[in-house]
Design a protein that fits this description.
Strand order of the largest sheet: 1-5-6-7
Radius of gyration: 17 Å
Largest sheet: 4 strands, antiparallel
Helix content: 25-40%
Order of helices and strands: EEHEEHEEEH
Distance between the termini: 35 Å
Structural class: alpha+beta
């Protein structure tokens, strides 16, 4: 039997140490609430301060089985709660514990923090399928 994994590791600079502390507190609050939730909000990701207690950079990474949608939801929540702006994005990898067809790939998402929405994404699997079907794809 094969195990399938989604992995990601990215940084988010929230601007100030105070905002980083607020983000960590929100994450812990949501993680505690997830214990009793049918649809957990931050399952599949871990959040730690990257650059010591006085820093503003957060490291978001998977906790064994990552959830790309959870990252997007959480970052959009932070954008709202902390009034973040600018563009931010991350990549993810799809892997498998055994060789399987269509089990490997990945993608990327771009979020406009100020507009509080995802503005673009790509999937290597979909890109490859389109290219092999002769569709016009950007390199």
């Amino acid at each position: 039997m094969a195990d399938y994994f989604t992995h990601f590791s990215c940084l988010l600079d929230v601007g100030t140490p105070d905002k980083a502390a607020r983000a960590l507190a929100l994450f812990q609050e949501l993680r505690a609430a997830d214990q009793d939730a049918d649809d957990p909000e931050v399952a599949g990701l871990t959040l730690v301060r990257q650059d010591a207690p006085e820093g503003s950079i957060l490291w978001i990474h998977d906790d064994e089985h990552g959830d790309v949608e959870a990252v997007i939801r959480f970052v959009l929540r932070l954008a709202e709660d902390l009034d973040l702006s600018g563009l931010w994005g991350f990549q993810y990898a799809l892997t498998c514990s055994r060789p399987r067809l269509d089990a490997f790939g990945g993608g990327a998402h771009v979020i406009d923090l100020g507009a509080r929405k995802s503005i673009g994404w790509t999937s290597s699997q979909e890109w490859l399928a389109a290219a092999l079907n002769g569709e016009d794809v950007d390199a």
